[in-house]
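Progress against Task 2.4 (sequence-to-structure conversion) is shown through the following example record, which the project officer requested during the mid-term review.
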Amino acid sequence: MKLFLACMLVMLLSAIPSLAAEKESNWVISAKPLQLKPGERIAAFSLNLKAASIKTIREIPSMWSISLDNFQFTKAPWATSFTGRARNGVAYLEALYFEQDFINIRKHDADLHFDAQLKLSVAGTDLKTRSVTLTAKDLIIKPMTD
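Structure tokens generated for the chain above:
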């Protein structure tokens, strides 16, 4: 009887991680084509996620300062903040960086409301900057394939 109960306990405990995994899913985020003016490039960005966390970043650009807060409990459940800023104008990014699967995320618990917002600081050749804010509807968020 003790052996039976021990086996049942092991089976139950081994099922717990798989139950948690069923509530998670992996996705990739890209920006829809950005309508930048000639000579404009991205000088900084901020990505905020709710009910999701960062899984992987495609590439960290050279000469960029990056900050990542995965699962910030001070905000909404499973809030994540990912920011970056070029250290100088030479490192500014072309729009293509954000338009080609720039980040992989893990959505958590379908019962939580998922949301995403990407803010870009765009600089032109005249050194003037403007802000572009993209909401979830402005982003391409698709299931990640291996």
